[in-house]
Design brief:
Cytochrome p450-Terp, domain 2; 3-stranded antiparallel sheet; 3 strands; 3% strand; binds coenzyme A
Length: 384
Amino acid sequence: MTTAVQKETPASPVVAKGLKGVVAADSAICDVDGQLGRLIYRGYNIHDLAEHSTFEEVTYLLLKGELPSTFQLQEFSAELAECRRIPPAVVEFLKACPRDMLPMSALRSAVSVAGLYDPQAEESTPEAQSQTALRLIGMMSSLVAAIHRLRQGLEPLDPLLELSHAGNFMYLLNGRIPTADETRAMDLILILHAEHGFNASTFSARVISATLSDWYSVIAGAIGALKGPLHGGANTEVLKTLFEIGDVKKVAEYVETTRANKGKFMGFGHAVYQVEDPRARHLKELSRRLGLEQGQPQWYEISVELERVVREAIRKNCNVDFYSASLQHYMGIPGDLFTCIFAASRISGWCAHVLEQWADNKIIRPSSNYTGPAERSYLAIEQR
Ligand SMILES: CC(C)(COP(=O)(O)OP(=O)(O)OC[C@H]1O[C@@H](n2cnc3c(N)ncnc32)[C@H](O)[C@@H]1OP(=O)(O)O)[C@@H](O)C(=O)NCCC(=O)NCCS
């Protein structure tokens, strides 16, 4: 038996619960200004990118730091398109999964399995790191579409390399060549969700990569973090809320009941933004348009009323997940696939951050403020 050493009680350190407000590293990728409601990728405002850019261009910008020239974009887009194919063994793995698999769980597992078939998975040269990043970005939307089709009892489709990234994604999901409007809608979703600083999934990716683990472990971990309803999983919950309300006249009653039950309003509030989430306005406008075009404006209208009443009730603005729910519903995407679509976009941001982390690595290892018992003597089991 050892004798307990009396420990002096040090002054309690200041604990930043949830690391809120803690600056954990320098990063040149993204600036989220929560006071101004401003989002910048590598110096470019999200409003300009949403209006003028494509997912391929934004991915190039995030990975390489500059917008590409026409030639660079063509070359990069062709390289990315070549990465759309899924290893056949991963398709076989997905086929063996339960038909009612949760899409985000299936995606997390499929990424993990894909790592087993990538001969470069454990290579750490800068060339291998860049190539694997591209493979993951190219493959992610194909994995999401394969999961979507297999759940319906359909065979996954081969990618069409001549389509844009967004166009091919819509094709793989629906099995028909998308219209220009459908492609643009998907492109907008992919651009707006691609990057957002040290959010939970990106920070998870940086923590895992900082141990010098491999790409596939990093991305599987990031998908796990994104899946949670307080992060990327919120968009799925928003659609459930809209369906539960069902009628614009029932919004006030829903808000009252949720408040009385101390419930959360999914798609509202943000850890950084104190004002409008700048991404929400683009999704809102597109949701309005598609709702009208399809003669089903009710999901948009319920969303608008819910936004108004929640803001009045708890002074929280809606976030990126709020209007993405009605919008993706109008695009024919099932609610439980929304977070996978988010992952197929955020993969670009994750990869940019992991490359930045590896370029100047330091293991991420914060401390905790111990609140357990002071050191005490070990008691033999028969004396307890
Ligand atoms: C995003 C979120 C996790 C940020 O959490 P946070 O940084 O702790 O936010 P705040 O500091 O502003 O929250 C303080 C309090 O405001 C209230 N609040 C914040 N968001 C709320 C919401 N959507 N509904 C009801 N109350 C909310 C809560 O009382 C919260 O206290 P809690 O942490 O004990 O629940 C939080 O707003 C939330 O849970 N939103 C719903 C889920 C969602 O939409 N997530 C996607 C984010 S992009």
